[in-house]
Amino acid sequence: MQIKYKTDTVALKKIMIEQGISTYRELSNRTNINRNTISQIMKGSIQPSAEAMRQLVSVLKIPPAEAGIIFFSPDLRTA
């Protein structure tokens, strides 16, 4: 059985607000990640690539331990 992961989008949105980033367009501009990709990540449609995770962690100033929890939460619905 393969473990699938799901990004905690609620936590990402909360951090966006705390950092003063109010739109996906602004997050896209700061991270250099395509706006459509940001939208899909935030909807939970896709998991971000390693590079996208790195950019999000850097721009949103997410501590490493918290980033692990946000990006690598087990998706219990598929277990």
TrEMBL record:
<dbReference type="Pfam" id="PF01381">
    <property type="entry name" value="HTH_3"/>
</dbReference>
<dbReference type="GO" id="GO:0003677">
    <property type="term" value="F:DNA binding"/>
</dbReference>
<feature type="domain" description="HTH cro/C1-type">
    <location>
        <begin position="25"/>
        <end position="67"/>
    </location>
</feature>
<dbReference type="InterPro" id="IPR010982">
    <property type="entry name" value="Lambda_DNA-bd_dom_sf"/>
</dbReference>
<dbReference type="InterPro" id="IPR001387">
    <property type="entry name" value="Cro/C1-type_HTH"/>
</dbReference>
<protein>
    <submittedName>
        <fullName>Helix-turn-helix transcriptional regulator</fullName>
    </submittedName>
</protein>
